[in-house]
Amino acid sequence: MTTSVLDAAPRGSRLLRAFARNPSFLFGCAILLAVVVVALLAPWLFPGDPQDMVAPPTLWPGEDMAYPLGTDSLGRDVAAGLAYGARVSLAVGVIAAALGLLIGAVVGAIGGYFGGKVDLVLARLTELFQTIPTFILVIVIVAIGQPTATVIVTAIGIASWPTVARLVRAQFRSLREADFVMAARSLGYSHWRIIVHEILPNALPPVVVTTSVMVANAILTEAGLSFLSMGDPNLVSWGSMIGDGGPLLRTAWFLTALPGAAIALTVLSLNLVGDGLNDVLNPRSMQQ
Amino acid sequence: MSPNPVLLQVRDLVVGFGKTEVVHGIGFDVAAGETMALVGESGCGKSLTAFALMRLLPHGARIFGGQVLFQGRDLVAAREKILRDIRGNEISLILQEPMTSLNPVLPIGLQIAEVLLRHKSMSRRQADRRVLELLSLVGIPEPQRRAREFPHNFSGGMRQRVMIAMAVACGPRLVIADEPTTALDVTIQAQVLDLLDRLRKDLSMAVLLITHDLGVVAQWADRVTVMYAGRVAEEGPVGPFFRQPRHPYARGLLGASVGDSGSAHYTTQRLVEIPGSVASAAAERGCPFAPRCPETIAACRVQPPRLEPVGEMHRVACPVEVAK
Predict the structure, then answer these.
(1) Is B248 inside any structural domain?
(2) Domain-located, residue B252
(3) CA torsion angle B239 B241 B245 B251 (round to 10)
């Protein structure tokens, strides 16, 4: 291990500096931050229900400055829809990814740490879920249940955990043989404590990276569901806006283009953040 | 020789992987307060033995049989929960690689404090104070500041000091040190072993020193047990052992090392070598050393020789030597 000037700096500030040197990560953060701010401020920026008909239908962007991004075929404010849609997309993305992360981390950690028969069963279970296409699984679960936000989030979470499980399992399998885990065992710590305290923090970097991509995928899946009119009918979502605008694609293309751009930008920003985290947290790139 | 009561008795310990035995029924004692060295070359099973004592075997390895009596309690048969209370508290382990033996994401002070909180009924504040005492005890300057630093801020020698601080934190009766200085350079090696020896006396604990370095044994151990291919070849107090090693393997080892008498480092004489390689011993029916031994007799090929006394506390597993 080389001793550089950077090694002397506390871990936190070294990380910050590495992030600052990564322009695409900063760009991703900026877009994501903008989306989060719009989502948080939506009730203040656009008071009232975004599903209300407030103006003549299909106003083009800029035609009436009260509705800067125009209105849809029912006269609903597109800008308000985008802002409230950001709330839905981000909430669904984050909660579904958190759920997938939780299930995946528990399954992966237990399988990877203990190995043997437990691992065999959990690994087969993971593979079973992986063979089913994510989107089909989500559609089936939502079709069986009600298309409420809770069911959709749960369905996406259930469909997305295998990726995390495999990653966490691989991390645990290599880390359980690490010297510091042996040292921890020799100090009399329990398995539970070794899993949570010793191995998990060391296994996190690649998981964090994957999580940002999982959020993006969850947003895409939710948009896909809403586009197919399988989303929560009480919520405005980017996907449902695209679906509603579909029939008017030739006359009022902005109705699909604007929510489409919102999805693309958000997913792009999450991927850029993921890449940036990967560059910074990856131990191999850290040593360079 | 050692008037102290016996702390650890290992009896017929058999350890292996899958169905293959690696350690074939080894036995030795460690008395309270002494340094016992377990010596052997790579692959002879000394590290596996050390881990087996605390039932900390790597995945795939298991104990086939035998007893490990620690203060009269059999650790081989003990329940996992009881073992966990003993590990780090009454018996602790120092590993070979200080660079990787500390958790890289936690400050070292916290790592030491957690051992104390695990085994001793201490408040957080008491533990923190004890951590600073321990850090100065193992010779780490500015403990107040260093306690908050991460392992990557420490050199190899300093990390091994931290490991020692963790090992002795709870005042164990026995410290098992598995080649604690192999990864360090020679000057640091002496410092670390001196430190361990000082702590052994101050805290009246016993040290089981696993090593392949006879120089280390001569300088720091009270007694020595030589292992060859998973069996004990010879055991005895360090003085008589180095004056007159009895087992042909032990004699070969000493002959093959550069002594520290006179200008030995610049000797022009050829060092004695042991013919053959350890691998040939694996499937041996009789004495594992027989294929490489210059003094083999017919009896050596029949069954593994038993340890028999050849002096006070000095025993050797060689029928030829015993008969002399």
Answers:
(1) yes
(2) yes
(3) -100
